[in-house]
């Protein structure tokens, strides 16, 4: 499933895009000079940004695996980014081959790589839709083609909401995405914070904003507000490296993640 209204011809190489900058931080090749330049600006301000990207990715793997092990069989991943193996569907279908996964992103370059996201197990299914999180209704409508909303869905907004400014009402967006989901559905979030070094993160945010991305880091309290009305999965809201590290698969070069200013949590819809 793809959105025919978007194509690779829509790729704007004249300004940086957060998904391509993230790809650069992970050591990927699917980025352009303008993305690399902006990413290097961020690196000059916060040298641990590549470790942060890996720490975030590792959290996504652990959270997805845990939810699959606890019986979730449907996943909606918004802000997918450029595919980096293992992708979410590979993690969850490794636990439950029948799992269904819908990916959504608003960068046309991700659409170009959608084929990599659609290699499902024979028992399960994966789909991709080009969609903007600021239009949650459109994403939900497209996801219904693949997912059964009468059954629980694991909604993933990993490293996405710090790219949504307050004026776009991120809490409303989360509520609208959760509203149609069945009881027992889960929300997985990760979010950069300026709690430990506000001056540096003000400067990092400015790099993104100058490139046209409405970045905004948030405090522990502000991040926790996204989970109002939900039941937090143990250990609650913590820094990424402290969330079930025993579920991870340590890789060389991932050290230092315990100091990364990235809040995470998983919560269940009652």
From TrEMBL:
On whether GTP-binding is a keyword of this UniProt record, the answer is no
Q: Does the keyword Lipoprotein apply?
A: no
A single GO molecular-function term is: methyltransferase activity
Its keywords, alphabetically, are: Methyltransferase, Transferase
SUPFAM superfamilies referenced in this protein's UniProt entry, alphabetically: S-adenosyl-L-methionine-dependent methyltransferases (SSF53335)
Choose any GO biological process term that the UniProt entry carries and state it.
Answer: methylation
What protein name does the entry list?
SAM-dependent methyltransferase
């Amino acid at each position: 499933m793809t959105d025919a209204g978007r194509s690779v011809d829509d790729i704007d190489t004249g300004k940086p895009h957060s998904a391509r900058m993230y790809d650069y931080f992970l050591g990927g090749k699917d980025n352009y000079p303008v993305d690399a330049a902006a990413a290097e600006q961020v690196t000059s301000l916060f040298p641990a940004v590549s470790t942060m990207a890996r720490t975030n990715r590792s959290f996504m793997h652990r959270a997805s695996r845990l939810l699959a092990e606890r019986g979730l069989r449907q996943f909606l991943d918004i802000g997918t980014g450029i595919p980096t193996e293992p992708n979410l569907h590979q993690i969850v279908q490794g636990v439950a081959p029948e799992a269904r996964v819908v990916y959504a992103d608003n960068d046309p370059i991700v659409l170009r790589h959608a084929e990599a996201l659609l290699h499902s197990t024979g028992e399960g299914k994966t789909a991709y839709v080009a969609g903007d999180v600021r239009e949650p209704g459109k994403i939900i409508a497209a996801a219904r083609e693949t997912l059964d909303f009468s059954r629980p869905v694991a909604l993933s907004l990993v490293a996405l909401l710090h790219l949504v400014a307050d004026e776009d009402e991120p809490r409303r967006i989360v509520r609208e995405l959760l509203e149609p989901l069945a009881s027992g559905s889960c929300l997985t979030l990760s979010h950069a914070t300026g709690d430990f070094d506000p001056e540096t993160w003000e400067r990092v945010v400015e790099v993104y904003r100058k490139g046209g991305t409405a970045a905004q880091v948030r405090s522990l309290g502000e991040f926790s507000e996204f989970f109002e009305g939900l039941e937090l999965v143990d250990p609650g809201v913590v820094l990424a490296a402290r969330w079930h590290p025993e579920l991870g698969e340590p890789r060389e070069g991932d050290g230092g993640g315990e100091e990364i200013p990235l809040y995470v949590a998983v919560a269940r819809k009652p």
